[in-house]
Amino acid sequence: MSESAVTAESELATYSGAQAPARRRFVASGGLRIAVHEWGDEQAPPLLLAHGGFDFSRTYDVFAPLLAAGGFRVVSWDQRGHGDSEHAALYTWDADVRDALTVLDTVTCEPIPVIGHSKGGSLLTHLADACPHRVSKLVNIDGLPSRARHPDVGEHERSRLLAKELAGWLDHRRGVANAERKPGTMDELARRRGRMNPRLSHEWLLYLVAAGAQHDADGWRWKLDPSMRFGGFGPWRPEWTLLRLPGLPVPMLGFLASASEPMGWDTTEEILRPYLPPDAEIHTLPDTGHFIHIERPREVVERVLRFLA
Amino acid sequence: MIVPLRHGKVTLALHGLRTHEDSPLGSASLRGNRNPGRALLLLHGRGLRSPTAMPKRVAAWPGPIWALDFTGHGASSVPRGGGYSVEILMADADAALAHLGNVTLLGNGLGAYVALLLAGARPQQVRGAVLCDGPGLAGGGPRPVTPAVVGPMGALEVAPDPFALIELARDVRPPDYATSFVRQACQLSELERPLSVCAIERPDWLAAVVEEPGAAVTTLAEALAHYACVPA
Lengths: 309, 232
Prior knowledge:
The complex is a heterodimer of chains A (309) and B (232). Chain A is built from eleven helices and ten strands. Chain A has helices at 3-10, 63-69, 93-105, 119-130, 163-175, 186-196, 202-212, 238-242, 269-272, 292-295, 297-308; strands spanning 23-29, 32-39, 46-50, 73-77, 112-117, 135-141, 213-216, 219-222, 252-256, 281-284. In chain A, helix 9 (269-272) links the parallel strand 9 and strand 10 (281-284). Chain A is globular and about 50 Å long. Chain B has 232 residues and is an alpha/beta fold. Chain B has one domain (2-228): Rossmann fold (3-Layer(aba) Sandwich), CATH 3.40.50.1820. Chain B is built from seven helices and eight strands. Chain B has helices at residues 24-30, 86-100, 110-121, 162-167, 175-189, 204-210, 220-228; strands at residues 2-7, 10-18, 39-43, 65-69, 103-108, 126-132, 195-197, 215-217. Chain B has an eight-stranded mixed sheet, with helices on both faces. In chain B, helix 6 links the parallel strand 7 (195-197) and strand 8. In chain B, helix 2 (86-100) crosses helix 3 (110-121), helix 3 packs across helix 5 (175-189) and helix 5 packs parallel to helix 6. Chain B starts with a strand and ends with a helix. Classes of the chains: A alpha/beta (309), B alpha/beta (232). The interface between A and B is large, with 45 and 48 residues.
């Protein structure tokens, strides 16, 4: 299907308060095509927004316009293999951070605020540590580390090691060359996603299908690279991520969920307290799941704008 | 002879350095010995590629000999945008396993670490892994170092991929992560010594490996002779 036809179909979907990005462009990261989405006035001060694992920029279609209305040029990108970005042969944390920097290079060389959800929050925390001269303030939305497993973080970053898990991953790798996502109706795709996002409304998930799936001859498919997979193993330990926090060189605002759910990280203020930089601001929102900015967009934006002022 | 193997979006080059027919056991099989001999699979070090001819040091191996070019190395394809990890190289080697059946692994440097991982992950199919010196044996050390972001770089698509050279020098190799693979190989392979360490250099992960039961410190010649006698 041609790009314009896809756009036309996507535009059929509406959701109260949602706005498609004002601009979309592509940048090359090591030759890989990365999709960049922007909301707000192009001349306004920029900020960088990073989505979580298995998500895509347009999951910010409600959140980002509110930030833009607060006076920012909001720049987000689809991580490799996600949304409208190219499917890569290889995926790692370092590659994602490099893609982030590539996008940032097309925006400004000055330090700017960065905001990330879940894996995106953790990626940007890493970016702030690796390139402190490029980040002015960090907002982390339920992407602060805990000792628990992170369901949306790639397989190389994990520490659990089981024979079954290893063999299962290798078996998966043997099949990825021919893997494709399961087709379905928009409703089926929304319901499937609902199993991982049980707190989000069906209406919102339907809206996401229109933005994050493509319509093939045999039905709708999520654009996400089918080689990606939950679960896995690796040498990474959560405490290594925790240890990036005490010396964090920029002011940080963090949001934590209080309701546990499948994609959640289950981080608590108690876990974080010994590691937080002295002036870090942490908010745990009552009766809120992992997708804090989708459940409470206005409340989160209000606090973010105050923090960035 | 090069056999192309698919691994995801990458085409790997598996080099046949000595066929069944040319191997000592293979020629014996022409005389009625039905055991064609288990293959020896060579895994190269960081920044290297498979040899184009059989190295003399492995000539005594009785069966066929193969060598794999990892993703972004030698005659394997070079993906765009990097993103290398040793775990993905383990899956490269597993693609060779799917083609060859049971093998004995001989890894140098980076390839030695990959051989250890695969011996733990595919304990039934890996019939011994020999760990030798070579570039990339130390990896990125036992814990993370100061993070740095490399790039952006252009799309070069040359082997060895510059992304591979950088990223595969940074992978973290905690000793207890390495030993968990040794234990898995020991528990699930039925071999008394699934690992043989010939490397002189002992980065932290390898120093921990040689302390484990099931890892013998030995010479390459002894290790190859030992695994040649292990039932297929």
